[in-house]
Amino acid sequence: MKIPLAHTAMIVGVALTIGVVVVAQAWVQFREELEEKVLLMGRDVAAAAPEAILRSDYWALYNALRQKASHLPARIGEPRLQSGMVLGLDGRVLAHLDPVNHPLGLPLAPEAETERRLLADALEVLTPSVIGGGGKDGDFIESIVPVTYNQQRLGVVRMRVSMDELKDRIWQAGFTVLFLTLGLAMAGSLLGAVISSRLVRRLKALSDGMQSVGRGEASQVRPLPADGRDEIGQVVDRFNEMAAELAEKKRLEEKLAISEKLAGLGQVAAGVAHEVNNPLGGMLNCIDTLKKHPDDPALVQRYLPLLEKGLNRIGATVRELLVELHEEATAKPCDLACLSDLKELVAAEIGDRRIELRWDNQVSDEMCLGCSCPNLQQVVLNLTNNSIQAMPEGGALAFRSSCENRSLVMEVEDSGVGIPLEHRRHLFEPFFTSRPNGTGLGLWVTYQLVRKMHGTIQVDSEPGRGSRFRIQLPLEIDATAEDTR
Hints:
Blueprint: H1 2-55, H2 58-69, E1 81-88, E2 93-96, H3 113-123, E3 129-135, E4 138-149, E5 152-162, H4 164-214, H5 231-292, H6 297-320, E6 334-335, H7 342-350, E7 355-361, E8 367-369, H8 373-389, E9 395-403, E10 407-414, H9 421-424, H10 442-452, E11 456-461, E12 467-474, E13 476-477, H11 479-484
Parallel strand pairs: 7-9
Antiparallel strand pairs: 1-2, 1-5, 3-4, 4-5, 6-8, 8-13, 9-10, 10-12, 11-12
Helix pairs in contact: 1-2, 1-4, 4-5, 5-6, 5-7, 7-8, 8-10
């Protein structure tokens, strides 16, 4: 019984609320429209009154009153006009719709105290206004409009309309809403009693099934009968689908976990292959040069240290590649002398390409960063390698480093093909690349390394005019070096 009663109460409450709102809005709207019309009538009479008053043409005043009194809005029930008059400043009647009881030229003498106060207030009105009140003839709305000529007051116009017809219409609307509410409540109660009995049975079956799913017994839940295509039937259908999907999901969870692990391993393997390939290119160029000149001790002495550094960097790369999976317990400061070692590696990577290398390292070797040298070298080599690949027809590659505001600033600039605007917003995302043979991990690893070193990286590029990467890292000056200086 609770559901039918709640259903009935809800219908009655909603219907009553809507009815009260509608009746209230109708009352306000009708009253505002009536006030506007009454005020407009008073303004029209006051506009025509000055000339008639100055000529003492009281018949014209009376005709103006009668003409305007006949224009009332029919859509709100044609309310009854109680009175209309034009008074002089001394209260004498200049025109009245009831000339028998209010003769021309005599002072208006209301009997009731409230009417005498209204008369006194009306004679003092300076701007058009609307008032409401009640009297022996019922409630009314009255407009009071002063008559002026050359900014001098000549009299006042008063137009009064009865509110009884409007109130009767509002009461009729209220009773109509009440009857409709009771009818809807009765119909809703009968309909709710029928629907609730079916609804309770179906909801109970659905609840039992959901409890079984909650206990992890989705594979043991039998499909529930839909019994129709209404809302509950659709919910039952979705429940049956959900139970089947949960049972299937349970079987696929282990396969999905294995797939995610394989995907993670694949990403790591691709990153390792990409980052190890960078120094291998320069090392292979060194070996190729040594094979062509095996008896040149100068070349052997020059390239063997580079090969050793390249191998050491590969080992460091393997250890440092997964920057997102671990953080160093303590940062090991490195001196910036490692930047000077990069020039030969970059030159070896360029090889016989028609690329001019401009190396401008202006930092002191005595300065240090709160990071490891392999990380710093990896950032520079990743960016220079990208620049080399962006200049297939040759060009110029510039590296600049300096100290600004206790920060290390490095710039890698090339005259290559540039980066389109639509690619720039995805530049540091993993596996995003515009090269057919690229893996899309170089700039991603660079971004992770810069972030790990608490630095920032900015890109300035224009298609066809090259690119410029600017990196800024917080700088620490070796206190021991300063003391010995």
